[in-house]
Amino acid sequence: MHHNGVLSFADIGVGEASLQLRSVSIIGGGAWGTALAQTLSHDTVVTLWVREPEIVEDINARHVNRVFLPGVDLNHSVHATGDLASVATADVILAVAPAQHLRGVLVNLARHLTNGVPIVICSKGIEQETGKFMGDVLEDIVPQATRAVLSGPSFAADVARGLPSALTLACRNEAVGRALAAFLSSRQMRLYWSSDVIGAELGGAVKNVLAIAAGIVEGRGLGTSAHAAIVTRGFAELRRFGEAMGARPETLLGLSGLGDLILTCGSTQSRNMSLGRALGEGRSLSEILGARSAVTEGVYTAAALVRLARKKNVEMPIAEAVHEIIEGRLGVDEAITGLMQRPLKAED
Ligand SMILES: NC(=O)C1=CN([C@@H]2O[C@H](COP(=O)(O)OP(=O)(O)OC[C@H]3O[C@@H](n4cnc5c(N)ncnc54)[C@H](OP(=O)(O)O)[C@@H]3O)[C@@H](O)[C@H]2O)C=CC1
Ligand SMILES: O=C(CO)COP(=O)(O)O
């Protein structure tokens, strides 16, 4: 929400310095980047960087993104471009490329950037090769950027249609976080600020892996009791891992943690949950992935998550089972039997 399109530190009463926020660039024209462009374009100038020229053309000429966000008429003020230099001068940049491609996109963007520009990570995942969260990937490539994270329960299709949503905006510098939350909030999308950057980004990455497990339970017809059990024990894994990584408990219990876990595990609108469901129904991973163009982040994050958890000595049996299934080393029924037959223990 804006005051004549300009929001400054002084506006929120934290001193002299002012951060002029008037324009937003969004890097990534998939479902989420396009949905964010749509919702933000009601209040501000938005430019969307899209890699594929035919999608740039679709958005600018026909005001739709038929490949990634079909059925949504985009505001005419959503402008797409394939030119990274022209989006680098915005006051805020939202990074929404899939996790495994974010580094490559940032490398190309970096040479056009001005010092200190806030870059808000909206992607959810862990980089396979390095085991790094997206904020650390950003730190590698653009150390001078002001790093922030936007995460929470939010299906692109819901946000693009203007349905209500609430998310977490995290930035270590609380004043900047507050300013960004105010600037990016709208009547439809309410942002809560936090200074717990790792907590905010960890929830989104981990829940994608756990949602595959919830989908498997659904697809195998194991019932609603099993669904509640897998989500609850999945949350125990998320919480243990989060604490080991230095996340704050209240963040893990908030929108970007428990909130997004509940959303993603509970709906086949989720790509991760629906992929799990198809696995549970007996379809193979290659068949499922071959039939979809949308990114299913949990598939690519599972291995990195399990590696990190082992390194930190955090027990994550559900994430481990998902990883083994994805690698083709474990069948769905064996995984379920394995989880049920683990030694009994105290609930933690
Ligand atoms: N969809 C949702 O509801 C939500 C998604 N997210 C997160 O947002 C991120 C993006 O997801 P989403 O927008 O849904 O993605 P989609 O599956 O809708 O689209 C795929 C995106 O990946 C891009 N892409 C594919 N290959 C490359 C590459 N080699 N280099 C750069 N970009 C590439 C595509 O760009 P191109 O057009 O050029 O092919 C397109 O923007 C993910 O991390 C996801 O977890 C977060 C919240 C909600
Ligand atoms: O992150 C999401 C909702 O918050 C989207 O989940 P999927 O990627 O599983 O569709």
TrEMBL record:
Pathway assigned in UniProt: Membrane lipid metabolism; glycerophospholipid metabolism
Matches recorded under InterPro entries: 6-PGluconate_DH-like_C_sf, 6PGD_dom2, G3P_DH_NAD-dep, G3P_DH_NAD-dep_C, G3P_DH_NAD-dep_N, NAD(P)-bd_dom_sf
Positions of the Glycerol-3-phosphate dehydrogenase NAD-dependent N-terminal domain: 24-175
Keywords: Cytoplasm, Lipid biosynthesis, Lipid metabolism, NAD, NADP, Nucleotide-binding, Oxidoreductase, Phospholipid biosynthesis, Phospholipid metabolism
Catalysed reaction, written as an equation: sn-glycerol 3-phosphate + NADP(+) = dihydroxyacetone phosphate + NADPH + H(+); sn-glycerol 3-phosphate + NAD(+) = dihydroxyacetone phosphate + NADH + H(+)
Glycerol-3-phosphate dehydrogenase NAD-dependent C-terminal domain mapped to chain residues: 196-336
Residues where NAD(+) binds: 28-33, 156, 271
Descriptive protein name: Glycerol-3-phosphate dehydrogenase [NAD(P)+]
